[in-house]
Amino acid sequence: MENFYESEKNNAFVYNLKRFFANMFKKSKLLEANNSSSIMQKLRLWDETGEDFILNTDDITLELNNYDKELTSEKDLILVVATNIAPKSNKILTPCDLEEKYYGEVKFDKHEKFGIELSKTFHDTIHFCINSYFSNEACKYAICIPLKEFKGDIFGGKECDLFAVGSVSLDKHAYVLCPEKEVKELRTKNKKTKIIGFKGNNACIYINKFINLGLGFKYKEPDIEEKEWRKDTQDKEFIYRVFEKRDWFIGDYQDTPMILEENRKACTEKIIQTLRVIKDNLLLQELKEDKIRKVLMDTFECGNKEESYSFLIDYSLEKDFNSKFNASVKRQTGVSLKDVQKWKKDYPIDVQQDLKQLLCEKTIADLKKCLPK
Known about the structure:
Layout: H1 2-7, H2 12-35, H3 39-49, E1 54-55, E2 78-83, E3 91-92, H4 95-98, E4 101-107, E5 113-119, E6 125-130, E7 141-146, E8 153-158, E9 161-165, E10 168-169, E11 175-179, H5 183-189, E12 194-198, H6 204-214, E13 222-223, E14 228-229, H7 234-245, E15 249-250, H8 257-280, H9 283-286, H10 289-300, H11 311-317, H12 319-333, H13 340-343, H14 349-352, H15 355-369
Parallel strand pairs: 1-12, 8-15, 11-12
Antiparallel strand pairs: 2-6, 2-7, 3-10, 4-5, 6-9, 7-11, 8-9, 13-14
Helix pairs in contact: 3-6, 8-10, 8-12, 10-15, 11-12
């Protein structure tokens, strides 16, 4: 037949006949895809024609496949995160990026109370699951990014808890699932990213079917407690070769220096806000010094009991942290604290034996210097 077309290529009737059948074939394939419940076919139709679609409950009744597919390349890996915070300006924001605050108080007694504003969190990482996702709660959004196209700064973790430091940029290779009523708004705010709507308000019920049946990645069953893949060892051996190749940390987030940094920042902020209250309200003139001392003593105890974190231990043992803390206090409150070792010659031995008391007395002394003449 092809030889016939070739011999008659200058015949207008034959040329038009060939083009007619070619177009009919293309339309039939598109119609077949359009009528199919396959997420992959819907995605293909969307890419080829721009015809939009919404994921629905029919799509999640289909069985997962590719269980026998072996993971042999980084091209086989996709990173997934579910969240209730929508991406913005083509970025996934960390909790720290959001700069959310809450209002606490510094209480000297039942009559003297002063409000302070504190950060809800200093958590500056985004946590992904590789080739699957699990969640014990509903999330409005899901972001899926093939590992080979990932633009973030990955520190490490485990296959079901891989964390990147700082916000993550998104481009045309990333997919964002969102409630159908938000598709238009998210496309306006994230023009480089593929936005796909779904019925309902919980992206988590669609994620695994979407990456498996839509994007063709092998689904791996997560172990929620261990933050690892269940069952086979072959794929686990492969994923940890990837970790080693990329020089990623292997282990739990709680064992990283990021936790220490979060605790330090939280304690520093609380102490600085307390010092501001005392200084700005001239409380050393208004209240008995014992009340100020008690509040300072309690504030310098601040830490994270669950992580066994102590501000005072860090302050006494980490010279670099000591210097940075003192500089931050000076910059934000005007109170000048110096290196712990340099204080000791100015204070009696009984105070020196208690760093908390030493720090408290030194702070009060420097606060007094800040009082108006």
